[in-house]
Amino acid sequence: MTVAGGPVVPAAATSDGAATGGAAGASAAVTAAAVASAAGSPAIAVRDLWKIFGPAENKIIGTPDAELSASDVRLKTGSTVAVRAATFDVQPGEVFVVMGLSGSGKSTLVRCLTRLIEPTQGQVLLDGEDILKADAKRLRELRRRRFAMVFQHFGLLPHRRVIDNVAFGLEIRGEGKAERHRRAIEMLDLVGLDSHAWDYPDQLSGGMQQRVGLARALAVDPEVMLFDEPFSALDPLIRRDMQNEVLRLHHEVGKTMVFITHDLAEALKLGDHVAIMRAGSIVQIGRPEEIVGSPADDYVRDFVQDVPRSHVLTLRWVMREPRDDDPVDGPELPPDTVIRAAVHVASATESPIRVVEDGRLVGVVDRVQILAAIAGTEPDA
Amino acid sequence: MTTVRARLSVPSSAATSRRALIVGGAVVAAVLFIVFRGQWTLPHDDDYGLFRTLNGIRDAVESNRSVLEPIRAGVAGLVGIFDQVLASLGWPGVIGAAAAIGLIFGGWRVALLAAVGFGILGSLGLWESSMAVLSMMLAAVLIALGIGLPLGIAAGRSQRLASALSPVLDFMQIMPTLAYLTPITLLFLIGVAPSVIATLIFAVPAAIRITALGIRGVPATIIEAARSLGATERQVLVKVLLPLSRRPVGLAINQTIMLALSMVVITSLIGAPGLGRNLQNALSKVDVGASFDAGLAIVILAIILDRLTYAAGEWADPRERAARSGPRWVTIGVALALVGIGLAIPLVADATTFPDTFAASFREPVNVAVEWFTDTFHAVTIGLKDVVTNLVLNPLESVLVTAPWWLVVAALTTVAWYVSGGRAAIIVSFCFAFIIGLGLWEHSMVTLANVVIGTLITLGIGLIVGILSARHDRFRAFLRPILDAAQTLPAFVYLIPALALFNPTRFTAIVAAVIYALPPVIRLVDVGIRGVSGTVIEAATASGATGRQVLWKVQLPMSRHALLLAANQGIVMVLSMVVIGALVGAGALGYDVITGFAQGKDFGKGLAAGIAIVLLGILLDRITQAAGARRQAGMETAG
Ligand SMILES: Nc1ncnc2c1ncn2[C@@H]1O[C@H](COP(=O)(O)OP(=O)(O)OP(=O)(O)O)[C@@H](O)[C@H]1O
Ligand SMILES: [Mg+2]
After folding, report:
1. Is CATH 1.10.3720.10 the classification given to domain B34-67+377-639?
2. Which residue from B420, B406, B450 is spatially nearest to B575, judged by alpha carbons?
3. Nearest of B98, B133, B125, B166 to residue B335 by alpha carbon
4. Cα(B117)–Cα(B129) distance, rounded to whole angstroms?
5. Whose CA is nearest to atom 14 of ligand 1?
């Protein structure tokens, strides 16, 4: 989801940037459709997607039961609403993060995108083609060429060497051995594991195994990469390494990525956009600074309260309208500058920072605003 | 502690009244027994009408044999092919080939074991018998795997098929071996073909079960990863499921072979040639020495087959293969040379029969030793036998036989209801109704008495040894190879030591059954007690409990389900062996079945006795079934 224009006033971000989940599936769809039309054609467009597990899978949507909370539905029908009326767009080349607590339906959502789990209802459009309408052959074709997935527990084949694990996707789609090995070596090179090509997965550390998982996904040269909590099983230090690795790869190969995590810091670090899920519903979608700067509800606020705001919020978020009496000799910075990065600039001058976009003055930031952001006490927090 | 207990037990006053009910019931039963003793009994009648009717059924099947004949001929033909291959290899060829296979799969040690093992079979003078067993077993295993592996793979992938198969496999696995045989002779007469069919029926459940378990054990993420890359179902099967379940499938093959060997020697009862027949003849002449030779040959064959299939399973793992030292072509070269030498020997020397030069037999020394032993320890063995027979076995038997039938039925149905619930009680009473209808009440009661005594002894010893093993790592390490070996031994062999010690009597059959059922019972007790969570034990120890208190207050109560499972397993195995014990002196149902094979006019009674054994098996299994049912319930709530 892209927020058209970007917010100047935080309150505005909430109203057009967040698709409020819950019962109002239809209205969420309308909001997102409006947004999509404003922002060019998305790589993946998800519309009113539902997944219900259990005996009443097909007996809930469209009935009053659909308005009940997830736990009430479970009590009443014995079924689990894992994804409820999800609607969002993923723009080409962006990293779209889905974040939520355990059991909120993230894994189900991402699996519905390629029908590893068959959705109960809705639309998943890949470049305008509805994946839910694809037959088995077409679906295989999509999985073989256009999607690739990286899993929390790696999913490597223990009886195959690293190189053959990386080449597995190519083998599945029937490519010759020489060609797929050449490509696998290339990918291993890319993730820095070329010297381990002939090892077996269990001879590698967890982080290295996940690099193999990454290489396997990259090897098929997909348009979209899906990550389901790929780093949750790793140590914090290695996790940071791997996050940087993903950022680097994203920079180098420019794939569209859908990234699932339950770690807010990871979401904010990697995401161009972040969707927050709770009990199957998407409760807010926005840029990281929108999520932190104006949480849609108490659930999200709870999540973000410990985030150091100055690390996430940008100048756009704290700047005020320029006034005629503002000094004109202050340093100039673009509005996307993170507050933390503006600190040393602000401390070097008495004058307020001038926020300039495309050569135009769009706002002014005083020390007061910077300090308030660092302290987490700016007026709208 | 006491106060807590008291408080906890308040709501269980229902349990207290239930207990009172049980005690009351027992008293009532005892009174009824004393009053009605000797009345409403169902004494045995060899001329019961149903037996003749069953003979009639046999004759009817006989005249319609053409339908079943192709199956019989096909199976016999398959055995014939194996027979011919083994015969044309000759003993040098077979030894050479076995060594070559051992070399390729497992290295020179396995090769040596295979070659020496087959050599001993020859020098015992049992070469032909061994080859007969081998070819029947190979045929049975081939068919069993042909059915079992695909079915196991399918059951591993489809929960629905697995649920549908499960009760059938359960039934096949609790069915006592002897009970298979009569219906099979009804359909396929006696001889090689029915023996192979009985063997494969016996072996196939394990093949299906283990394969399905293996397939199911493949981690879901890996399958999902393959699917996410666009793999077809076929690709998932061939590139993921099969390679990843290589080990369990290897185990399935190994188990199929071991079970088939175990059964194929028993099928000598329905006319199969081979080592089983040697053993059976020796047992019937109470020639312990000769039975030792035959038993040794069976054990050696079991060890060779176990080692070879184990090695083959390891070899199937490419990483294992890669780790082996030495270039592969050398191994293959040596293997080919071994086969070549084996095949060349007949060209230069007569190799139709195994040469007498290596002849060796343990018959004489074993007989001497057994004689010495029985003479020396006469007092002990006879004393033990007499004490158990006169003080326990005879009274129990007489109670069951002389009590009114309705009292026995009511008492056992109540026990089933108490232990395993209403469903089990209903099944138990149905089993009794059929047993009465079969006209085999008295014989069933005698067999039941044997089973009860055998099970009690098994559980007593099994509990003590199992607890020791669970509490002492050293003891466990010492016990493990013994249990391993005991569990690879074919069931038939267990009759030999029992016979050596106690001569042919009912007690001998019970001893054989106890030896047979002990290893798994010990294992289950040990595993159950060790399975108790370490934290709980730590908590108990931390609150000052002694080792003994931990055992009685924590480990035993918490492993209750495992202990019930051990009882269930023990009872089923004891029954299975007690009826085979007819060969060493036990009477009743097992004897009826075996004479049914031998005498045409007794066929009907034999068939009825076979069915009665099955009913007895179901009945005993259901009474103790609570273990399985509760375990499942536990797993469901945990999952
Ligand atoms: N195959 C299934 N059958 C029934 N219920 C399921 C199934 N898979 C998931 N669920 C339920 O759907 C809900 C969402 O599960 P999901 O795995 O998508 O959550 P998640 O956000 O990925 O959680 P986690 O962070 O623990 O991975 C949960 O309540 C879960 O119990
Ligand atoms: Mg998940």
Report:
1. yes
2. B450
3. B98
4. 14
5. A105
Query: pTM of the prediction?
Result: 0.80
DSSP SS3 for B353: coil
Residue nearest to atom 3 of ligand 1 (CA): A53
- Does B141 score more than 90 pLDDT? yes
Backbone angles phi, psi at A89, to 5 degrees: -120, 145
Condensed to tens digits (0 to 9), the pLDDT of residues B544-561 reads 788 888 888 888 888 887
Cα dihedral value A318, A322, A327, A333, nearest 10: 50
* Cα distance between residue A166 and residue A180, in whole Å: 9
Closest CA to B182 of B52, B50, B53, B55: B55
Q: Do B229 and A169 touch (CB under 8 A)?
A: yes
pLDDT one-digit tens code per residue, B106-129 = 888 899 999 999 999 988 889 999
pLDDT at position A19: 40
Q: What is the pLDDT of residue A147?
A: 93
Mean pLDDT of B187-192: 85
- Flag whether pLDDT at B636 surpasses 70: no
CA atoms within 13 A on the CB side of B483: 19
**Per-chain mean pLDDT for chain A:** 84
Cβ pair A171:B239 closer than 8 A: yes
Using one digit for the tens of pLDDT, what is the confidence trace for A134-146?
A: 999 999 999 999 9
Q: What is the pLDDT of residue A136?
A: 92
Q: Give the domain ranges of chain B.
A: 34-67+377-639, 85-216+246-357
Distance CA A179, CA A255 (A): 22
The answer as to CATH 1.10.3720.10 being correct for domain B85-216+246-357 is yes
| pLDDT for position A377 | 64
Return the ligand 1 atom nearest residue A280 CA. Answer: 14
Nearest C-alpha neighbor of B395 from the set B475, B476, B323, B453 = B453
Ligand 1: list residues with CB < 6 Å.
Answer: A 53, 80, 82, 100, 102-108, 262
pLDDT attached to residue B161: 92
A147 contacts on B by Cβ (under 8 Å):
228
Residue type, A18: A
pLDDT of residue B579: 86
pLDDT tens readout for residues A151-164: 999 899 998 999 99
Among candidates B224, B239, B318 on the partner chain, residue whose Cβ is nearest the Cβ of A155: B224
- The answer on pLDDT for A33 being more than 60 is no
A267, A93 contact by CB (below 8 A): no
Half-sphere exposure of B423 (CA within 13 A, CB side): 7
Do the domains B85-216+246-357 and B34-67+377-639 match in fold?
yes
For the stretch B92-109, pLDDT in tens is 889 989 999 998 888 888
3-class SS letters over chain A:
CCCCCCCCCHHHHHHHHCCCCCCCHHHHHHHHHHHHHHCCCCCEEEEEEEEEECCCCCCCCCCHHHHCCHHHHHHHHCCEEEEEEEEEEECCCCEEEEEECCCCCHHHHHHHHCCCCCCCEEEEEECCEEHHHCCHHHHHHHHHHCEEEECCCCCCCCCCCHHHHHCHHHHHCCCCHHHHHHHHHHHHHHCCCHHHCCCCHHHCCHHHHHHHHHHHHHHCCCCEEEEECCCCCCCHHHHHHHHHHHHHHHHHHCCEEEEEECCHHHHHHHCCEEEEEECCEEEEEECHHHHHHCCCCHHHHHHHCCCCHHHHCEHHHHCECCCCCCCCCCCEECCCCEHHHHHHHHHCCCCCEEEEECCEEEEEECHHHHHHHHHCCCCCC
Percentage of chain B exceeding pLDDT 90: 21
Q: Work out the average pLDDT over B169-186.
A: 83
Residue to substitute from A157, A218, A221, interface B, most B β-carbons within 10 A: A157
